[in-house]
Write a structure and sequence with these properties.
alpha/beta, Beta Polymerase, domain 2, Rossmann fold, six-stranded parallel beta sheet, four-stranded antiparallel beta sheet, about 15% strand
């Protein structure tokens, strides 16, 4: 058996996700991609902290760290205080910040489940594996990880691959992007449907791949970086549009799927009001899978507009969980065996058997 890491008792995870915290609070504490390198270093420089990794996605914000403090509760409170200060949360939002606070083997178990897609809104989600790898890569490159977190995350990736290879948990619609397309397909015949993707990141790529596989009539991609829009549109046999021009084409599309990294709303009620007049109030489906949200919630009040945000997709995702849930016990077994193998938990002790009364 691999000996336990020397600092395993000082491993902590502070997190909030789609289960604990609504999107309007999550978006306040989401780390923009460009700010994550600063964040991991800021956490590592907190008194008593040694290593850190920050995972920030549309469905979760999680801080993994090692520390030399005597009490994990003190470490968790320091991380909560860091979030409140970092995002300048007013008191009412600070009080609404419901977090889960894990240490030692529970923190490792949670990370293994996250990487394996078992803690995702879409059970068996595949995108989270790459998101965790990217979060770890950023921390590694900034010098914010050391022996403990390097070993932990490498072990987590091994577990995630084993779950993917040895079970069928990741079959079917296993990403937020593919569930968004499931929703579009319930409303429109995709073969007759014109779709606009606002944003050209990985989430938009997943949506585009799913749209293409289901025969969507046309895909328009718009992004602040026009080159990235062209790259994705070319790959998906679609059309690229400059970011300052996409508003002029909205009245021609049936579905808008928005996933930018903008810190503010990019689709506002006044814009959609104009679009709907041009459409003569023909129904428009808007799916907002960004955190922070791209679409002002007030848009949903406009006649003929149907807006779904990331939390609203959960009900749709739940429909596809049943078959994959049958694989859960096999996945959990892999994770528990791995925790034992890597020294986070001790093997079960067999008690002497008592004679059976007759």
């Amino acid at each position: 058996m691999t000996p336990p890491p020397a600092t395993r008792e000082h491993l902590v995870c502070l997190g909030l996700n789609y289960r604990t915290t609504p999107v309007e609070v999550r978006e306040r504490v989401a780390f923009p991609e460009a700010k994550v390198p600063d964040a991991v270093q800021e956490i590592r420089q907190l008194p008593g902290f040694e290593e850190s990794v920050v995972l920030s996605t549309c469905n979760r914000v999680e801080l993994y760290a090692t520390h030399t403090l005597d009490d994990a509760r003190v470490a968790h409170e320091a991380l909560v205080d860091y979030l409140v200060r970092r995002f300048e949360l007013p008191q009412e939002q600070a009080e609404a910040l419901v977090t889960y606070r894990l240490r030692s083997d529970d923190a490792a178990r949670h990370l293994f489940r996250v990487v394996s897609g078992l803690d995702s809104m879409v059970l068996g989600e595949t995108e989270i594996f790459g998101q965790v790898k990217q979060a770890y890569k950023v921390a590694l490159e900034t010098g914010s990880t050391g022996r403990a977190l390097n070993k932990l995350f490498q072990q987590a990736f091994t577990v995630g691959k084993k779950v993917r290879n040895d079970t069928t948990i990741q079959r079917g619609s296993t990403s937020v992007g593919s569930v968004a397309v499931d929703l579009a397909e319930k409303v429109h015949d995709l073969k007759q449907c014109r779709v606009m993707l606002v944003g050209a990141g990985e989430m938009s790529r997943t949506c585009a791949q799913s749209l293409l596989s289901r025969g969507a009539r046309s895909i328009i991609v718009s992004n602040r970086s026009y080159d990235r829009a062209v790259e994705l549109a070319t790959e998906m046999k679609g059309t690229a549009m400059k970011f300052d021009e996409w508003e002029h084409a909205l009245h021609e599309v049936d579905v808008i799927i928005s996933s930018t990294s903008a810190p503010h709303f990019v689709i506002k009620p006044e814009l959609i009001q104009q679009v709907m007049r041009k459409r003569r109030w023909d129904p428009l489906l808007i799916i907002d899978i960004a955190v922070p949200r791209d679409v002002d919630p007030a848009v949903n009040e406009i006649e003929g507009v149907y807006l779904y945000d990331i939390d609203a997709l959960q009900a749709i995702a739940d429909e596809g969980r049943r078959e994959r849930e049958r694989q859960l016990s096999a996945c959990e077994r892999i994770i528990e065996d791995s925790l034992e193998k890597y020294g986070f938990v001790s093997p079960p002790t067999l008690s002497p058997q008592k004679p059976v009364a007759t």
